[in-house]
Amino acid sequence: MQIGVVMGGISTEKEVSYLTGKYIIESLDKDKYEILPIPINTKYELIDRVKCLEFAFIALHGSFGEDGQIQAILESIGVPYSGCGVLSSALCMDKDTSKKVFVAENIKTPRWIMVRREEEINYAKIEDMGYPVMVKPNNGGSSIGITLVNHKEELDKAVKEALKYDEEVMIEEYIKGEEITCCMLNGEVLPILSIKTKEEFFNYSSKYDDNGAEENAIELPEPLQKNVEEICKRCWESFKLRVYGRIDMIIKDGEVYVLEINTLPGMTKNSLFPKSAKAFGLSFSELLDKIIESSLNTSKY
Predict the structure, then answer these.
(1) Cα–Cα distance between 184 and 146 in angstroms, integer?
(2) Over 50: is that where the pLDDT of 208 sits?
(3) Is cis: bond before 132, omega within 30 of 0?
(4) Edge-to-edge, what's the strand order for the sheet holding 55-58?
């Protein structure tokens, strides 16, 4: 089977995408697949480069990767691709919309407000949430453009920084607790990973540098483990996820808060999903096989 690994793209996460693509290419079984690296720098070069593929493995992150755009293009030209579909990708990429779905489904999530410019900051609402708060671009990942704000005086600068990366900025209640991530494959929860970092939060260097964070598979106490797994499955169903995804959470005082859902989680050598799969007993090559097989089985194109 001929597989094109689409990487690069146009987002601020381009560098991470190339790392993901490189690791996927190195790990795919050369006896099973004819592998074609497909680096892209614009939206417009995509169709000509992928239209003859048997399968596109999407190694993009951020805009025109996780937001449903590339998925829609691939569906329109009949090329099967890895991971979630258009709707799921778009919903999960938009943090504000994701949170509205969480609330509608009675899934706990930190409180938040949205702003489009500095003048819209509602300081009274933020005081009600209490400092510190997280300031982040609404559409984005890899912790790019995110700031932990401890005092009111730092807020304007943090919002201005986040607006460099997106037209909308989320100001979110900071929940200090145990950070975990739950990787899901075909609707099943893989081993939960605990994340411990020396930084104030799980930032870019924590995610991608060697020894940037301590990430270990854990078994939570029985009632909490069951609750986390149930929340994961509710997220899977509510967002109509398919094939694979990663759900980031914080646990505080026994309460579980969902932060966000990643429909194209990082697949670098330091990424969380390969670590969770390994704890489950899957090598990275075997994980890629399962993603390809499941994507083909669920594809309508």
Answers:
(1) 25
(2) no
(3) yes
(4) 34-40, 2-8, 55-58
The model carries a pTM of 0.90
91-107+176-291 in CATH: which number? Answer: 3.30.470.20
- Cα–chain-centroid distance for residue 57? 16
Q: Contact 115/159 with Cβ under 8 angstroms?
A: yes
pLDDT digits (tens, 9 = 90+) for 46-75: 888 888 899 999 999 888 888 999 999 999
- 112-173, superfamily in CATH? ATP-grasp fold, A domain (3.30.1490.20)
| Residues carrying CATH 3.40.50.20, the chain | 2-82
The whole-angstrom separation of Cα 283 and Cα 111 is 38
Question: In the predicted model, is pLDDT for residue 203 greater than 50?
Answer: no
> Does residue 34 carry a catalytic annotation?
no
- Active-site pick, 262, 276, 294, 295: 262
Q: Is 255 a catalytic residue?
A: no
User: Would residue 138 show up in a list of annotated catalytic residues for this protein?
Assistant: no
Q: What is the DSSP letter of 240?
A: T
As annotated, the residues of the chain forming the CATH 3.30.1490.20 domain(s) are 112-173
**CATH top-level class for 2-82?**
alpha beta
Looking at the chain, the domain(s) classified CATH 3.30.470.20 span 91-107+176-291
* 297 is known as an active-site residue: no
Is 262 assigned a catalytic role?
yes
**pLDDT score for 143:** 62
Q: Which of 94, 143, 266, 270 is catalytic?
A: 266
Q: Which of 4, 18, 67, 246 is catalytic?
A: 246
Active-site annotation holds for 205: no
Helix axes 69-76 and 86-93, enclosed angle (nearest 10): 170
Q: Is the pLDDT of residue 44 over 60?
A: yes
- 260 as an active site residue: the answer is yes
